[in-house]
Amino acid sequence: MESIVFQSNLYATQSGKNFSPLTLEELILFLAINLTMGVKRLPSYRDYWSTSDILHDPYVSSLMPVKRFTWILGNLHLNDNTLMKKKGDKDFDKLYKLRPLITHLSEKFLSVLQPSKHQAVDESMVKFKGRSSLKQYMPKKTHKERL
Fold first, then answer.
1. How far, in Å, CA of 132 to CA of 5, rounded?
2. In contact, 48 and 37? CB cutoff 8 Å
3. Rounded to 5 degrees, what are φ and ψ at 85?
4. How far is the C-alpha of 79 from the C-alpha of 8, rounded, in Å?
5. pLDDT exceeding 90 applies to what percent of the chain?
6. Which tens digit of pLDDT belongs to each residue from 92-131?
7. DSSP secondary structure string for all residues of 43-90
8. pTM of the full structure
9. Which InterPro entries match (predicted)?
10. Which of the chain's termini has less CB crowding within 10 Å, N or C?
11. Is 146 helix (H, G, I), strand (E, B) or coil?
């Protein structure tokens, strides 16, 4: 979490705009608000701070001002952009910006996984029609375009 705070503040500094540095407490509140938004869905994230009685969420709006939430949303970073390898470089990583999170979660999942003797692994695929360099074409599958 401290790394996310550091990288987000670094990114904001690199953008050259005046800002109030992100703190660990704010990051935790930001994540809590995002979890709440996943449970109570509204058309736009700004609706949680709306003046309309129908949309307004007093819990979310009491935790953080919408302006600060928007700033964090736009500056949240996990890795330093200046160290990212260019496309075409042999060490280029399509998931560079998410790599710290992927690595951390992989380590945590492996530390808590207690596989049994008899374990089956199944491939799950999600239908996808958008653009992505991670999309795979599988001609033998019923739904050929999957992510």
1. 28
2. yes
3. -70, 145
4. 8
5. 20
6. 888 888 888 888 888 888 888 877 777 776 666 666 677 7
7. SSGGGGG-SSTTT--HHHHHHS-HHHHHHHHHH--SS-GGGPPPTTST
8. 0.70
9. PGBD (IPR029526)
10. N
11. strand
